[in-house]
Amino acid sequence: MSNAHSSALRHHFANLDQQKDSSVLGMWTFIVQEILFFGGLFLVYTIYRHEYFDVFEACSHHLDWKLGAANTVVLIFSSLTMAMGVHAAALGQKKATAAWLVLTIVLGSIFLGVKVVEYTEKFEHHLVPGPHFLPPEEAAHELKIQPSQTGQAQLYFSLYFAMTGLHAIHMIIGIPIILYLAWRSWHGAYTPAYHTPVELTGLYWHFVDIVWIFLFPLLYLIGHH
Amino acid sequence: MSDHVVSPKLYVAIFLALMVLTAATVWAAGQDFGAYNTAVAVGIAVTKATLVILFFMHVRWGGKLVQLFVASGFIWLGILLAITLADYVSRGWSLTNAP
User: Across the interface, do A224 and B62 touch by the CB < 8 Å criterion?
Assistant: First the structure.
């Protein structure tokens, strides 16, 4: 029990394998809960997309699908760099792990930067739901809908901000965690036998990527045909 | 079980497949599949998500217990969607036709 690895082993586990399996299962339990957490929003989206089909398509044209597509590429690339980080950690490559994790942070920050540009544009065009949303006549002109459908348009943008906002919050939480892991890895905290924090954070990051994989076509790409 | 070390080549291959599918999503959005427009978009997204879950998230090598947990998440999501939408379809809860 005096070897370097055993310091990571908590006393209530038989061995590191059992401890790691428990941690991975616990993380998946959290992610299953996250699937249902986002699932509620996707359910609301499905219902109102069906009800206000044409208005949702008209509003979708106000999102820049090229920015959405670019961000999709950036985020999937960040999933690759995260997978490479976990891979490097499993091989005990401490500095390579830190480098892959920092690259993941850079890509995640680019994604969030693009979202800032997009959100700013929505504020400038008064497309943020609430008292400052376009008045009906202007909304009808700007979004090519009927004035009476302004409320439906506000619903689309409410869902846009709720879903992409919740997604962005997940990334904002993830980035400092990954930064901490990079710092710890650089200082040799992880070994091939124990790098569970890197692996679990990888699961979290990939899950956030999956949410975006659904958000991109459902919010940006409807009614383009 | 979760100690399976995957070749980086496989990760790159999955990444490239995800890029191709992203291009396919954009392409499909420009086509008119009639009633199946959303189904095509969601189908491509499900394919991409499956690749991420199986390979990036190591579920392919994760053991039966992890696979059961992952499946349970999507089964419950299916229940959430199916039963709520069944109500909307069958009970005349249409919001646009509300009195």
Answer: no
